[in-house]
Structure formats: C-alpha cells, structure tokens
Design a protein that fits this description.
Pfam families: Bacteroid_pep
InterPro entries: Bacteroid_pep (IPR025842), CxxCx5CxxC_targ (IPR026437)
Radius of gyration: 19 Å
Order of helices and strands: HHEEE
Strand order of the largest sheet: 1-2-3
Number of strands: 3
C-alpha cells in the first residue's frame, strides 16, 4: 500500500485557503437576501417543496400546491 502523506498535506493546504468569501461561491451565493428554491419533486398530494433561505441559512420549508 502506498503512503499518501503528500496528498493529505496538499489537501490540508487547500482547505486553509478557503474563507467566507470563497465559500459563498461554493454555496451557490445563498449568502445574500431571501431566496426560495422549489424542488422538482411532487408528493402524493401533488404539492412541491419550497425551501426558504435567508442570510445563507435554511429557515423554513413550505408546500406549494398551486398549479403543479
């Protein structure tokens, strides 16, 4: 089995470069104001889930049954 210590240190070095500004790109820029993200999944009642995010954090889940 090969020793992968070099890869581990490379990964640790890359993790140190991440900060809040670069993590917003990874999170899909959810850091801003309120966002509603609707799923493409319908439940047994024909309703779809809509997640509400504010300030980059998940706040609530609603169910939209109109026009599905």
């Amino acid at each position: 089995m090969k020793n992968l210590n070099g890869m581990k240190s490379f990964s640790s070095l890359e993790n140190k470069k991440l900060d809040l500004n670069s993590s917003t790109a990874v999170l899909g820029s959810l850091e801003g104001g309120p966002k509603y993200i609707a799923s493409n999944f319908l439940d047994e009642n024909g309703c779809r889930d809509v997640d509400y995010y504010h300030g980059g954090k998940w706040r609530a889940r609603f169910y939209d049954c109109s026009g599905c």
